[in-house]
């Protein structure tokens, strides 16, 4: 659970508490949105309380969600009155997000365990037409840490296991989900971050050599977002961003191929010692000169242990300062 002033809200199921003591009690009494289950069918996960948006009872079709006694499912997001709930079917079809979601009853666990949680052995295909699960990979170091709120919004829609923070789990480990689905299923990966995060994810996909390469989309929450802009995803995130709307747009998008280059770099000899060659992968979005040098300087500054700022406006100011300094000193002269 994440705290905001005196209110604590679960980023998965939306349960709220007003103190740390109540959080402990809620964790003991109220089951959270399950990542995996052993049941044959997927059932509704009902949460009681008010909704932030207007809803309509699925049974009586009257206004719903305004009373503390009303119920809503944190998977399909249907709303019912307390008196109408017994008339609802137990089976949940995930609702409008079923094409993107891995239901918890379709995840088979391995007997092995890992420190970060569970280890999946297989992902079964649900009885859904045109099923193409979405994996959200976010980097909270990008930009002004907007990816934290983004990941929360996606956890409320998808299976929480499909939403990964890259500072906790590397992309190679997160992308193993794409191996677990059947071979004929295409996974879609959303890279939420800046240009560095997107290239990080693409390089991981290349190294893993998938039989069916996942499709990659971008959420521009970095500082520059040049690559995102060049590929048509925009140079920044809109203020009124809605995760549900983004998934709908993703479902209607047309895939396009991206040209990527493999480069072998042979470092110069030092004191008669040959350094090993370096294999690099880069997109055909290539830049040489001042802008490339400014991006490199900013990247090195942000990776420094002394870098403590995570504000987008400050980052853009740093970009500007590096650009002016590089242009005046003519570091790229006669390149």
TrEMBL record:
Protein name: diacylglycerol kinase (ATP)
Assigned EC number: 2.7.1.107
Annotated GO MF terms: ATP binding; ATP-dependent diacylglycerol kinase activity; metal ion binding
GO biological process: phospholipase C-activating G protein-coupled receptor signaling pathway
Catalytic activity: a 1,2-diacyl-sn-glycerol + ATP = a 1,2-diacyl-sn-glycero-3-phosphate + ADP + H(+)
Cellular compartments per GO CC: membrane
Signal peptide: none
Domain Phorbol-ester/DAG-type: 43-92
InterPro entries: ATP-NAD_kinase_N (IPR017438), C1-like_sf (IPR046349), DGK (IPR037607), Diacylglycerol_kin_accessory (IPR000756), Diacylglycerol_kinase_cat_dom (IPR001206), NAD/diacylglycerol_kinase_sf (IPR016064), PKC_DAG/PE (IPR002219)
Domain of life: Eukaryota
């Amino acid at each position: 659970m994440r705290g905001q002033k005196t209110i604590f809200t679960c980023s998965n199921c939306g349960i709220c508490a007003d103190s740390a003591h109540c959080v402990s009690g809620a964790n003991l009494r109220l089951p959270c949105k399950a990542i995996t289950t052993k049941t044959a069918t997927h059932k509704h996960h009902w949460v009681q309380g008010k909704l932030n948006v207007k809803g309509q009872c699925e049974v009586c079709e009257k206004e719903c969600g305004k009373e503390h006694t009303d119920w809503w499912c944190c998977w399909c997001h249907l709303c019912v009155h307390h008196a109408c709930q017994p008339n609802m079917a137990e089976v949940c079809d995930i609702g409008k997000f079923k094409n993107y979601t891995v239901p918890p009853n379709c995840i088979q666990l391995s007997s092995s365990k890992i420190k970060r949680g569970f280890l999946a052995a297989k992902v079964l295909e649900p009885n859904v037409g045109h099923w193409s699960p979405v994996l959200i990979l976010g980097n909270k170091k990008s930009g002004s840490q907007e990816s934290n709120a983004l990941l929360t919004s996606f956890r409320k829609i998808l299976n929480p296991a499909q939403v990964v923070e890259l500072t906790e789990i590397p992309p190679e480990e997160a992308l193993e989900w794409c191996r677990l689905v059947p071979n004929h299923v295409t996974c879609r990966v959303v890279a939420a971050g800046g240009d560095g995060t997107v290239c990080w994810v693409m390089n991981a996909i290349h190294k893993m050599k998938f039989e069916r390469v996942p499709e990659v989309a971008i959420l521009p929450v970095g500082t520059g977002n040049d690559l995102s802009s060049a590929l048509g995803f925009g140079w920044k995130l809109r203020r009124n961003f809605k995760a549900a709307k983004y998934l709908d747009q993703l479902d209607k998008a047309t895939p396009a191929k991206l040209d990527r280059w493999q480069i072998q770099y042979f470092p110069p000899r030092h004191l008669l010692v040959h350094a090993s060659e370096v294999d690099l992968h880069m997109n055909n979005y290539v830049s040489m000169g001042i802008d490339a040098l400014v991006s490199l300087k900013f990247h090195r500054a942000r990776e420094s242990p002394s870098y403590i700022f995570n504000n987008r406006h400050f980052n853009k100011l740093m970009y500007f300062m590096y650009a002016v300094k590089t242009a005046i000193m003519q570091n790229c002269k006669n390149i």
